[in-house]
């Protein structure tokens, strides 16, 4: 079974997150397990110190080598033989995307370091960390929210975590397209009607409309995700229709 440990000074933050939604259900159903590891348990001085001032001066603190190293070794022993990668959440890492998530799901599990302060002593990263992972180009106050993003995305890809309906839905945009718009009752709200095609019960037409929306929205909002030359003839024609509709309005 896939097992992740998150090393953090805020274990309660991770533990509460693990109770909710798809991830919480996956854990309760025994499809994966996640533990929060309190870094301070590996700091043995009177104040349980996990950080210190930076060599070279300047503002901000740096996470010490020893508590992190001891925590990692304890977690590796606890789950001996599982051969798990040590991950550090960091803006300096390879940026997470669906392809990267799918690679990580193939592993036995992860030991995830969620750092605070200015960062972690570089020698710990060099000697103990296999991969640094960034969730995007913005600055967080700690690695915990990044670790939660990673865990959520990974859990959804573990077989059985999503129900049949959710999985089928997922497959339809695993091909790297943005989702289509969604509507629910009432039929008219604030003077806006639901697109007529969705009300007719013609499932072939609805499928075509949704595909056209996915292609069109991806092409307009995220042209970096779509290569028009690689589309099937049918997709090309749907995308053309979408763009013509746009221009004609
Ligand atoms: N995607 N942060 C980590 C401390 C830190 C800095 C360097 C290790 C090395 C972030 C992100 C992110 C802020 C989490 C700095 N730890 N993490 N933290 N963006 O901004 O993952």
Describe this structure in words.
The protein has 249 residues and is an alpha/beta fold. Helix 4 crosses helix 6 and helix 8 crosses helix 9. A hairpin with a 2-residue loop joins strand 9 and strand 10. It starts with a strand and ends with a helix. Helix content is 40%, strand content 18%. The chain has a 5-stranded parallel sheet with strand order 2-1-6-5-8, sandwiched between helices. Strands 3-4-7 form a 3-stranded mixed sheet. The chain contains 9 helices and 10 strands. The chain folds into 2 domains: 164 residues, Alpha/beta knot, CATH 3.40.1280.10; 60 residues, Orthogonal Bundle (Trp Operon Repressor, Chain A). It binds ligand 4GX. The site of ligand 4GX has 16 residues, from strand 5 and strand 7.
Topology:
Blueprint: E1 2-8, H1 11-17, H2 21-28, E2 32-38, E3 51-53, E4 61-63, H3 65-78, E5 85-95, H4 98-105, E6 109-113, E7 119-120, H5 122-128, E8 131-134, H6 144-155, H7 164-172, E9 188-189, E10 192-193, H8 203-221, H9 233-247
Parallel strand pairs: 1-2, 1-6, 4-7, 5-6, 5-8
Antiparallel strand pairs: 3-4, 9-10
Helix pairs in contact: 4-6, 8-9
The chain binds ligand 4GX.
The site of ligand 4GX has 16 residues, from β5 and β7.
- The tally of domains stands at 2
Q: How many beta-strand segments?
A: 10
Average pLDDT over all residues? 96
- Main-sheet strand order equals 2-1-6-5-8
Which architecture of the largest domain per CATH?
3-Layer(aba) Sandwich
Number of helices: 9
Largest sheet geometry: 5 strands, parallel
How large is the radius of gyration? 23 Å
Instruction: From the 3D structure, determine the CATH topology of the largest domain.
Output: Alpha/beta knot
* CATH homologous superfamily classification of the largest domain: SPOUT methyltransferase, trefoil knot domain
What is the CA–CA distance across the termini? Answer: 53 Å
Structural category? alpha/beta
Shape: elongated
Bound molecules: ligand 4GX
């Amino acid at each position: 079974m896939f097992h992740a440990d998150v090393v953090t000074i805020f274990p309660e933050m991770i533990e509460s997150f693990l109770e909710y939604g798809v991830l919480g259900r996956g854990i309760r159903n025994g499809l994966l397990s996640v533990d929060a590891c309190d870094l301070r348990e590996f700091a043995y001085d009177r104040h349980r110190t996990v950080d210190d001032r930076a060599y070279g001066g300047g503002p901000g603190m740096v996470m010490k080598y020893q508590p992190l190293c001891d925590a990692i070794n304890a977690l590796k022993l606890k789950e001996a033989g599982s051969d798990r990668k040590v991950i550090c959440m960091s803006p300096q890492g390879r940026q997470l995307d669906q392809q990267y998530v799918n690679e990580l799901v193939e592993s036995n599990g992860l030991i995830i370091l969620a750092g605070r302060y200015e960062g972690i002593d570089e020698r710990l990263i060099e000697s103990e960390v296999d991969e640094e992972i960034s969730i995007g180009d913005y600055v967080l106050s700690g690695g915990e929210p990044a670790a939660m993003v990673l865990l959520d995305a990974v859990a959804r890809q573990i077989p059985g975590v999503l129900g049949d309906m959710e999985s089928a839905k997922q497959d339809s945009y695993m091909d790297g397209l943005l989702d289509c718009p969604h509507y629910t009752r009432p039929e008219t709200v604030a003077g806006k009607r639901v697109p007529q095609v969705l009300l007719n019960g013609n499932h072939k037409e609805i499928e075509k409309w949704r595909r056209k929306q996915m292609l069109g929205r991806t092409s307009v909002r995220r042209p970096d995700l779509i290569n028009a030359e690689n589309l099937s003839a049918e997709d090309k024609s749907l995308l053309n229709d979408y763009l013509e509709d746009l221009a004609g309005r």
